[in-house]
Amino acid sequence: MSRLPHPSLLPAVPAPAPRPTVRRPFDLRVHAQRIQIDELIVTDPRQVLAHARTAAHADPDTAALLGYSTTTPLTLPAAAALLCALHDPEELADMGLHMVRHTTRVTAATQHRDPVVLELSDAPEQDR
Questions:
Q1: What is the mean pLDDT of the chain?
Q2: CA dist., res. 30 & res. 61, Å (int)
Q3: pTM (predicted TM-score)
Q4: Contact at 8 Å (CB) between 32 and 59?
Q5: Alpha-carbon separation of residue 65 from 30, 79, 96 (angstroms)
């Protein structure tokens, strides 16, 4: 029969259990950017200007960013930009603008590497 050691020979505190390894996420500092571009053309300038005047009265702050004031009329490019800023692409066809192409560009890069770029482009069904 084996004998137990004398209590004075036992360790005072049990040995600590090994600590589990903590895995932290590897920080690569990757920055990603997604840009969606809708390319439109003006098909009816009068309609674009009329809708833009209405939109400028409804949202004068956005119109002011494009240079519109009560003393300065909207130019056709500013009117088209205002409509694009305030309306969904589906609504723009009824306002004298026509979708030419939709492009999605995704860029991702670390601080020390060249960016990786993915660009997807499509034209609306009626243009194919």
A1: 83
A2: 35
A3: 0.61
A4: no
A5: 33, 12, 22
Buried b (16+ CB within 10 A) or exposed e, 27-60: eeeeeeeeeeeeebebeeeebbbebbbebbeeee
What digits encode the pLDDT tens for the residues 100-119?
998 999 999 887 778 899 89
For residues 108 and 30, is the Cβ–Cβ distance under 8 A? yes
φ, ψ for residue 11, nearest 5 deg = -65, 145
Return the minimum-mean-pLDDT range out of 9-18, 65-74, 82-91, 116-125.
Answer: 9-18
Distance of alpha carbon 61 from alpha carbon 59, whole angstroms: 6
